[in-house]
Amino acid sequence: MTLHFAAARSTTGSPIARALTRRAIGRAANDNGGETDDRMLHAALRHFAEHGLGAARQARRQAEQAFFAGDRQAYDWWLGICRTLDRRLAAQFDRAVGDIANGGLDKGA
Q1: Nearest CA to 83 among 34, 32, 28, 49?
Q2: Phi-psi region of 26 (alpha: psi -120 to 50; beta: other; left: phi over 0)
């Protein structure tokens, strides 16, 4: 009986080795790119400590109240906190406010 030797595959290219290795960590999903100043970051973290996972939605509600009260400074502050905690939620809200400010007209269409 003849025996044939089959060499093992390269360990770097084997499917098992690829499955067991850790993937390189890319950019964090919540990395906003350093656009937030320290004062805003501190306020956002404090707000998060007080409201937990719903902090971004709470900041959005505060921004909404400030917008309808006509307080632009408070609106910008709360939208900044919302943006620090959840950029997508803040952008969605800012677009909605822009639509309201423009009389409900969508200029992109």
Answers
A1: 32
A2: beta
How far is Cα of residue 89 from the mean position of the Cα atoms in its chain?
Answer: 8
Place of tokens 């709470």: 58
- Go through 8-46 and write b for each residue having 16 or more CB atoms within 10 A of its CB, e for each that does not: eeeeeeeeeeeeeeeeeeeeeeeeeeeebeeeeeebbee
Judged against a pLDDT cut of 80, whether residue 34 lies above it is answered with no
What's the rounded Cα separation, in Å, for the pair 44 and 11? Answer: 46
Look at residue 108 in the predicted model and tell me its pLDDT: 47
For 41-100, write each residue's pLDDT tens digit: 999 999 999 999 999 999 999 999 999 899 999 999 999 999 999 999 988 988 888 777
Helix 55-69 vs helix 87-101: angle between axes, to the nearest 10 degrees? Answer: 20
Q: Which amino acid is at 87?
A: R
Q: Which helix (H) or strand (E) holds 30?
A: none
Nearest C-alpha neighbor of 47 from the set 69, 71, 79: 79
